[in-house]
Design goal:
Number of helices: 7
Radius of gyration: 17 Å
Helix content: 25-40%
Strand content: 15-25%
Structural class: alpha/beta
Length: 206
Amino acid sequence: MSLPATRGAPLSSVDAMPAPYRVVAVSGSLHEPSKTTALLRAIADAVAARIDVDVRVIELTEIGPGLAGALRRDDLPDAVEQQLRAIEDADLLIVGSPVYRASFTGLFKHLFDFIGQYALVGKPVLLAATGGGERHALIIEHQLRPLFAFFQALTLPLGVYASNTDFDGYEIVSPQILSRITLAAERALPLVGYAPVQDPRALAAF
């Protein structure tokens, strides 16, 4: 009888294979193609080059129309609900948004308004953003990090910000950004699969 697969951990049974870790990247860009999405894919590729992962990229350009008109989670179409569950079940989240009116995009925030309050507790989250220049780099610290602190997620200390000059079209060409992506991926690895399974009712008392 085969043993059930365990994500990331080799098993002694020759019949069982470790299941890949679930990495979900969420792009807050409202455009396609997108520098933000390209950045998130590059980060996900850097993680995938180091461990066995199953990568899913969620783009607001695809799910936005089904998301924008909903006031409650049960108003959402099934396709969007599936993406929310993927976010909640991920072993590692990679999230990013372009700077829009000094913050992340409104639809990005609307998406996370539907995430369960305790669904991301302890979950590793790698933060990223893009903008027109270096003056927007603090979006990671002033906007994204507080959002995921509310969820009690484990935001990784090293985020990745890229400006327009770091790209040639939609390809990252800056050696500094490519090095930072590599470093961010390496520092994320010890925490992939770390998020504890907890009963939300136990957390509600705090």
